[in-house]
Amino acid sequence: MTLLNWSSYFALGIDQIDDQHKKLIEMLNDMYDGIKSGHAEDVLKVVLDRLLKYTKSHFLAEEKYMMEIGYPGFDDHFKRHYELTSQVEELVQKYSSGEHVNYLEVVTFLRDWLQVHIMEEDMQIAKYAVSKEARML
Ligand SMILES: [Fe+2]
After folding, report:
1. pTM for this predicted structure
2. Domain containing 86 — which CATH number?
3. Ligand 1 mean position to 110 CA, how many Å?
């Protein structure tokens, strides 16, 4: 069973960003699989760190894209990225210092965040890009 499945509802129509979102969902499902099969500690150590690095480079790509198209909601979106990065960094730190981490809570938090962020916040970027393109025709 997967935690989150890619669906067309997630598609922004921006290939590079869509591919990165697919990869994030895949990483999240890998984490979930590992937890379900009793390898939570190994999985968290490896995947959480990888996920954090990947998320950071993905956010940079999104921010570059927002700048390219002159997205007016850039500042708020950038803030949301910063907030999530800080939350995940906090988790990694908590985990690395040996503090108890509820694994399922971690993956469900990431799933909910990713789902809402893509479908509500990232979708606004796509809508703006489409309307801008239409205005230029
Ligand atoms: Fe975003």
Report:
1. 0.90
2. 1.20.120.50
3. 13
| Residues near ion ligand 1 (Cβ under 5 Å) | 62, 122
Tokens of 131: 């309307």
- Taking the centre of ligand 1 as the mean of its atom positions, its distance from the CA of residue 37, in whole angstroms, is 31
Q: Total domain count for the chain? A: 1
Contact 14, 129 (CB under 8 A): yes
Q: What distance in angstroms lies between residue 57's CA and the mean position of ligand 1's atoms?
A: 11
Structure token pair of residue 129: 């890009």
45 Cα to the center of ligand 1, angstroms? 25
84-117 tens-digit pLDDT: 999 989 888 888 888 888 888 889 999 999 999 9
